[in-house]
Amino acid sequence: MAKAPAANPRLYAAVPRATQPSVASRLLRTLLPPVLMGIVLIIGYAITRNSLEPHRQFLMPDAYGLWTQAFGIAKVRWDLLDRSLTTLTIAIVGMCVSIPIGMILGIVMFRFHVMEKAFFPYLVALQSIPILAIIPLIQSALGFGFMPKVLIVALFTFFAIPTTLLLGLKSTDRGVIDLFKLQGVNWLVILRKAGLPSAAPALFAGLRISAGLAVIGAIVSELFFLAGRGGLGQMLINAKMDFKYEQMYAALIVSSALSIGVYLFFSWLGNRLFADWHESGGKSA
Amino acid sequence: MVGPSGCGKSTLLKIASGLVTHTGGSVRVDRNNLGYTFQDATLLPWRKVRENVELLMELRGFDPTERRRVAQEQIDLVGLTGFEGHYPKRLSGGMRMRASLARSLALNPSVFMFDEPFGALDEITRERLNDELIALYMRQGFTGLFITHSIPEAVYLSTKVVVMSKRPGRIVSTFDVPFAYPRTPELRYAPQFSELCGDISVALRDAIEK
Fold first, then answer.
1. What value of ipTM does the predicted structure carry?
2. Could you tell me where the beta strands, DSSP code E, fall in B15-159?
């Protein structure tokens, strides 16, 4: 076998630890990403708008238009706020339906393997059915009130809850479960003191997904329910019919903000709850 | 107990403790007050050290003041004083194992199963925990069934070393360990100690190669 080539040591100078970045540079580092992204967005928007023929530029209103026709008008602002609350109420009530039912299903599937076998395919199927496609059916069956919209939100948000909870419960440390079993405690105690806490971070990841979908579901449900006074979704459609594209954009912006806000709320809550003990908590994400 | 990986040492402990039901033969053991430590510390990550040590007492329905008192006593005993409020994530591997021991000791078990508890620790920490385990044994006098891959650990801790063969796991030989308790670290360098370790090592190699 060939001998290894002779070692040829080199001297490497120490690299002193970087000093604490100044406030200005830290500020720059925080602000630069959103500012850069903002510039890209504005340029993109401006190019697209200006490449439209003048009679189609109404599709992309400018900032001046948005202010004078929508956000600048007190009545429109109140309208946006009022409708946001309506949409948010639908989203929250929908989640109040899907979270408990989803959690119970997740627990039942965990406890009885046969239930998992029985239910899981239907959960996947539920996820694969375009919910949009069954909205007309829901409408025909249940009418135009509040509850059908809640049902739609519940359908939108359901899938992530039992699936993430089941995954979390299943990944409970075997040793921990054995430890509990050795004390002869019943299954409910194991679930309450070991299973649920250990599944909580996974469940929260599911809740975060569901929360974003809840707002989307609420808005989508309203697109189909134009009777009465509705939320942001109805405003979108009305604005289109009335040719008020600035108001439509305003509704779009507010609904995106709502969706992001709900998502951020759940992220924040999750981080707060799990910061001390789980990798998902704390500073990152 | 020593034996090749996968020969069923852990399964034997699980059968002894009732976690796995046996399909043949018979088991005779006092399961009323059983201690058990696993290959890892199996602490609940969302509980602080104190709450982890209190866990088994909580499951047994001890009242909170009693729980707290015993937990503090055990925490002091395993040398974790000052870390009661820490989450397991913040502890080193050896400290986690100490907390795990404290948790089991809190019930003052009469029979104690050890499923290779110190296997993942470094040599120095392992030797220190061996000494601490001897001290705990002197204090509380439980019966221990200890699985390990380290022959010196087996000899250092026990009165009898059992060698198992590879699958299907059978007991191929047993060695009586004559050294008196309390055993001290010097024992590890005594000629008789090395000799016994050597004999067990040969038996183990036979068991693996046969």
1. 0.84
2. 34-37, 111-115, 143-147
Chain A contact present for B199, CB below 8 A: no
Which residues, in sequence order, are CB contacts of B10 under 8 Å at separation 6+? B39, B115, B116, B147
* Cβ contacts of B36 on chain A, cutoff 8 Å: 178-179, 182
Of B136, B140, B123, B146, the C-alpha closest to B39 is B146
Residues within 8 A of B (CB atoms), A 192-231 only = 193-194, 197-198, 200
B contact residues 81-140, partner A, Cβ 8 Å cutoff: 87-89
- Does A198 sit within 8 Å of B46, measured CB to CB? yes
- CA distance to partner chain B, nearest, from residue A280 (Å): 13
What is the distance between the alpha carbons of residues B22 and A196, in angstroms, rounded to a whole number? 30
DSSP H/E element including B171: strand B171-176
Task: Dig out the tokens for A263 from the structure.
Answer: 């998502």
Decide if A258 contacts A215 (C-beta within 8 A). yes
- Per domain, the residue ranges of chain A are 64-274
Tell which phi-psi region holds residue B130, choosing left (phi > 0), alpha (psi between -120 and 50) or beta: alpha
Q: Kindly report the CATH class assigned to A64-274.
A: mainly alpha
- Regions of chain A where pLDDT drops below 70: 1, 226-228, 279-285
Q: Which of B19, B39, B45 has the CB atom closest to A181's CB atom?
A: B19
Predicted TM-score of the model (pTM): 0.80
Is the Cβ pair B59, A277 closer than 8 Å?
no
CA angle (B161 as vertex; B159, B164 as ends), nearest 5: 160
B1-25+112-210 maps to CATH 3.40.50.300 = yes
What are the residue ranges spanned by the domains of chain B?
1-25+112-210, 34-108
Closest chain A residue to the Cα of B34, Cα to Cα:
A182
Predicted confidence (pLDDT) per residue in B58-80, tens digit:
988 889 998 999 999 889 888 88
User: What is the C-alpha radius of gyration for chain B, rounded to an integer number of angstroms?
Assistant: 18
Residues of A in contact with B55 (CB under 8 A): 179, 193
